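To assess whether the prediction recovers the assembly geometry, we first specified each molecular entity separately, as shown.
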Amino acid sequence: MSVIAQYMTQDHRACDESFANMENAVNDENWDEAEKLFNSFASDLLYHFDMEEEVMFPAFEARSASAHCNPTPVMIMEHAQMREALKQMKEDLDAKNKDHFFGLSESLMMTMQQHNMKEEQMMYPMVDQAMESENAMLLEQMKAFERRS
Amino acid sequence: MFQGLSTDQAPPISVPFRFFMMAPIFGMLISWMMLSFSPSEIFNRYSPITIGLVHLFTLGILAQMIMGALQQMLPVLAGAVIKKPILFASIVHTSLNLGTLALSAGFILSSKTYLSIGATLLGISFALFLFTIIRLLFKVKYLTSTVNTMKIFSLAAIITILLGLYLVGQHIGGNINEYHYLIVNSHIAFGMFGFAIILIMGVSFQVIPMFYVAKDFPKFVQNKYARVLLGMLVLYAIFSILALDTYLIKLIFSAIIISFAYYALYSLNNRRRNVFDVTLWYWKFSLYSLIVAMIIYALDDKSNDIVLIIIFSFGFLFALLQGMVYKIIPFLAWFHLSSKGHFNIPTLRDFIVQDNIKIQFFIYLSSVSVFILSAVINQDFIYIGAILFFVSNLFLLINFIIASIKFYKIYKIDPMSMYK
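The predicted structure of the complete assembly is given in tokenized form:
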């Protein structure tokens, strides 16, 4: 069973949803609501990265990855790009700079989507395969990781 | 081996850009040709000038943009990387462009030498390109509907090219027999429905949800449509050669393609991301044009051929490709800079300003409208259409160039130097 792929793919969709809601609030210039939704989106996204970086990737690397066939450094680099975009969006939100915000949110959205595609089509199936019957246990460990924000 | 879109694994930005930049140049060349010849020659679909013009479009614009986009997309879609990307792109790009010019010149000037040069160069370009992407596609471990559709596309592309080469061979040998036009029909059908539509389907399955946070296409559309189309194409070719009635097959083509356009529009109209995005205008205009084109196709009236060609090529294909590339270029520019470690980067909307895209869209839309008028009301309208088409392509090129200049200005700076 590909439990990790299923769960994490669902989490991507949840992040998309929370991203779209946040953008819509900014679009309506409903700033209080936008800030609330932004914080909730940022928290979801960063938690997703944490589950991967702190739990899933180390477990996968310990199990399977050889130096020439390890996708995790690329994934981590893209997480860093998205964290940076998120930080700048927060500044725009505080300054109520709608145009610049949408320029950035679009960059973030495209990065997120192509990143999700790679994870859903390659990374997660590889993890499920490498972990074999222990994948359900790994997923529980990921879910047990504490939210930092 | 795993590969993804990061600067050390994706091809350098100059690889897709060199293909995208050439498309509007061919657009301008087409306008210039339209202004140089009499409308009566252009409106005859069998005249050598029209054949030349059609290939300037199908190879110089359509194949060009598809090849550029695929070299960029394969690493993301298929986890597959092309080795020596710059060398590969240079050979494919140079032989495609010179081959297209030579082939079209061969038709327009009735020169067998040019036809031979064109066919050889195009043969090299497509053989290398298709061989490489097929090798990569068949290595993909985790199959998606896009990867499967791309495989079917590459098969349809091979058939289109082989039929095309055979037809050029007949032109060069001066051996135009009664079968020639039957093969021409199959070449066109494979080009329109195999090469163009199947590819656009495969790309749309990924790109519409990705660019617009929109719904996925229904599973049966993703899994079945391309296969059914390919099957129908083979049937169509056999029926044509046996001189059997193909009307029913044409109806099936229309039904499948219209329903694809419907699902694509449904997905776009119900997207979760409600923020205004000008590239949606291109997609919607394109998909509505596709529906109109397929209705005209189903009516099967030869007197509508030219209107059909205009709506299918310019209304549907070129509009969709422009909408797609307007998304890809700013994203790649941003992504490459961000991967290189730059923080202070223009946003996606700064690389190509939305207002400039809007103006270009309206000029493009009016050129297509005037072309339709020229086919329906008065052929002389083609001169106005050609001028508008020229301006819209010039504008497109300028939008691309401005984005590249903004990119390279920052790219040549070492991000670390800002901290010294």
